[in-house]
Amino acid sequence: MPDEKALRQLNAALNLDALWIPFTANRQFKSAPRLLVSAKDMHYQTHDGRKVLDGIAGLWAVNAGHCRAPIVEAIKRQAETLDYATGFQLHHPAAFQAAEKLVAITPAGMNRVFFTNSGSEAVDTALKIALAYHRVRGEGTRRILIGRERGYHGVGFGGISVGGMVGNRKTFGNMLGSVDHMRHTHDLARNAYSRGLPEHGAELADDLERLVQLHDASNIAAVIVEPVAGSTGVLLPPKGYLQRLRSICDKHGILLIFDEVITGFGRTGKAFAAQTFGVTPDLMTCAKALTNAAVPMGGVVVKQGIYDTFMEKGGPEAAIEFYHGYTYSGHPLAAAAACASLDLFKQEKLFERVAELAPYWEDAAHSLKGLPHVIDIRTLGLIVGIELQPMADKPGVRAFEAFLRAYQKNVLIRTTGDTIAMSPPFIIEKGQIDQLFDTVREVLKTLP
Ligand SMILES: Cc1ncc(COP(=O)(O)O)c(C=O)c1O
């Protein structure tokens, strides 16, 4: 960690003007900056010399904790050996190794992977694979992509089109044309304070049947959902909902895509939420913890039959079967970080650790029931959403204030709308779980 003198020098030298910061209130930030300058295991160090407990694993991503030595070493080794190789018509060993390690933990039958550099790219790639797949197998009329209200699928035009966030529609207009949406599943009236999955709402999957009646199945390519919606407030699927969605997709030949960008790599207690819920999609996106967030990387994992169809119908052997890819798909540094991360998850049995800690986490979370402003608490694995009553005419302001106050108390939480979301690294200790929830408790008592 940098010493005080180094921090003073850094602060004095830093000009904040040139950078436009993503998903941030830039003016507020620049008037009172929050800079993270180093990290180790469960903690960040801030520019003003404080040690902050990371309650959100960076951003649902640093699942093994920060700056873990095996991952750092793997990246260093790879940078010295092969910094970059194009993935187009050439490739390099680490990408194949990363793919093999990844498909070793995905649901049975999902064993082919296309690498991207982010979750947003993984989503757009999955949507393109779905469209192209139907076309190569002779059902090119299947063009419509179905998302869900309150879905978040990153920031590409494909992702915001199938996503269900009103802010995107307000700002960016109609986006992709052939898109429709199912209803969301959030139902406070029936499901508030559920322990485990909500009892009510499996029937909302039938909304897909309504869309089939409207568009006809022969025009629908795929349905994309987050098994657990994160960025729109930690929304858990009602019991039986995903199973029902799976069977409606099967009935109509519609591909089911799970966006596992936040749920992947142990967050729900198994490698993927698909395994936690016992529902296997046809395609699955992932990113974030794939490399423990040390180097940007995402991926789309598909059932072997989808890959095989592209190969069988791909024309002459020298023809490119799927016209898609990124300069940095399977980048050597990312691939090396993925291999080291996947090894570390396994060696330290970190996914099992999530399942073990989950009951303690759930009890700690529900101990906040009854505190001011709290209207629901939702947990699964090492995830929690604490929904607050919004301030009149000021949506999001109360929760943002909670974030600022917790940060001052050396705990990093995250807020989406008026929901506090936490998702710590899996190496968290029970005492640190107490610290997280005790801090949130203190903050809730002081909120306007
Ligand atoms: C479900 C889901 N999909 C996609 C994304 C986008 O990932 P990225 O920010 O890496 O583009 C996110 C990001 O949080 C996400 O939660």
Structural summary, described in words:
The chain has 448 residues and is of the alpha/beta class. Helices cover 39% and strands 16% of the residues. The chain contains 17 helices and 15 strands. Strands 4-10-9-8-7-5-6 form a 7-stranded mixed sheet, sandwiched between helices. It has a 4-stranded mixed sheet with strand order 1-2-3-13. A hairpin with a 2-residue loop joins β1 and β2. α4 packs antiparallel against α14, α5 runs parallel beside α14 and α15 runs parallel beside α17. The protein is globular, with a radius of gyration of 22 Å. The two termini are 35 Å apart. The site of pyridoxal-5'-phosphate has 14 residues, from α6.
What would you say about this model in short?
The chain has 17 helices and 15 strands. With 448 residues, the chain is of the alpha/beta class.
Which hetero ligands occur in this complex?
pyridoxal-5'-phosphate
Oligomer: single chain
Radius of gyration: 22 Å
Task: Let me know the number of strands.
Answer: 15
Q: What is the CA–CA distance across the termini? A: 35 Å
Shape: globular
Task: Please list the strands of the largest sheet in the order they lie side by side.
Answer: 4-10-9-8-7-5-6
* Overall average pLDDT: 96
Helix content: 25-40%
| Beta-strand content | 15-25%
Contiguous uncertain segments of 5+ residues:
none
- The class by helix and strand makeup works out as alpha/beta
